[in-house]
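Hello Y.,

Per our agreement to keep a running log of every chain we model this quarter, I'm adding this entry. I've kept the format consistent with earlier entries: sequence first, then predicted structure.
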Amino acid sequence: MSERDKHARPRDEDESLIPKHGGYRRLKTFQLAEIVYDVTVRFCEKYIDPRSRTVDQMVQAARSGRQNIAEGSMDSATSKKIELKLTGVARGSLEELRLDYEDYLRQRGFPLWPPDYPALMRFKERRCSTLEEFRSWAADEVRREKKDTERRNREGQNTDGHGLAQTGKNNKNQRAVCDSLCPSVSPSVCSSVFVANGVLSLINLCVYLLDRQMRAQAEAFEKEGGFTERLYRKRVQARKKTKD
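Predicted structure for the entry above:
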């Protein structure tokens, strides 16, 4: 063996059998899933009948989203396949939760905001990273809504039987489903609409990022393999050293 060969370090020597893993708290998907979980627990406590099975289903789906991201990150040390699978489970749980929030709004005749709805745009600009920041945004929007409603009442703006402002059907710049709730709606119900739409925005972003995360995990697995492949390379390397 030449001196050059002796001092050369192949890629396998730099490869650790147990690579760095964990660090899930730094993942944006985990951070988003944690806020979704915290808000969902309080949403169910405040707005859903405690006797309803929906409470357990929503809370467990939110918890599953967060926990499986964390577990997948930890299991990545020994199984990229399991990491990918658990990330997919997290995505599926959040998709289930998204449907629950959409059902809550639809079944009560409340608006599901489009991405460009003003309150939702303000929410995205805040980039809430904690439960308290989320609650602060919701409280600010409820106060803003109350002031806007009082102003419209003074100006004599009409609302329909559902508390939505009457608008022309052909006016693309006006959407009845996006207009404000009427004064007859209780503050708690008004708040639930803001919270539900805010959580849906977080879920949409988290699911989008999880899709990207899964693609990256699949590419890494395809290119580098997992624990079994690393173990094989280490064994081959050890046998070469013995022969040398």
